[in-house]
Write a structure and sequence with these properties.
Length: 151
């Protein structure tokens, strides 16, 4: 093996090591995740617009609509809105998801369940306890021990 062959072989090994380095893999995954979140944000924006239109039709056009249906539609609209806010906050906070936003989404989703399935008192009690636990988690997430600066 000549020295030129050895140099070429070393360059190939170096380039494979550079490509497969944890830093480059992490960057590639971050780019992929950011792109996927952008697409998800676009889809959620369309769904938010559709939900807005359905809510307008439900309130102003539909006849004999129960208040539970309207409330469920409003809470669903807020869920879309909160997911979009979460994606926006992800990009604003340096590609980081704040824990608080997941807790807000969980609380909103459980409130929606209470509105839809309020007939069984035991389920309502369980859902209410779940909200209380999430509020405890939110309080803990907002303490200076866990909270990151700038959130």
């Amino acid at each position: 093996m000549t020295s030129q062959d050895k140099t070429t072989d070393d360059k190939q090994k170096f380039s494979l090591k550079a490509i497969a380095s944890p830093r480059n893999i992490s960057r590639a995954m971050q780019i992929f995740l950011s792109g996927a979140l952008f697409v998800l944000g676009a889809v959620l924006s369309v769904l938010l617009l559709m939900s807005t239109w359905n809510l307008i039709l439900l309130v102003f056009v539909a006849h004999e609509v129960s208040s539970n249906e309207i409330l469920a539609s409003i809470v669903t609209w807020f869920l879309y809105f909160e997911f979009l806010a979460l994606i926006s906050k992800y990009y604003q906070s340096g590609l980081h998801f704040p824990l608080r936003y997941f807790i807000y989404i969980g609380i909103t989703a459980i409130v929606r369940l209470i509105i839809l399935y309020h007939d069984d008192p035991m389920n309502t009690l369980i859902f209410s306890v779940a909200i209380l636990v999430l509020l405890g988690g939110l309080w803990l997430a907002n303490t200076s021990v866990i909270r990151r600066d700038g959130q």
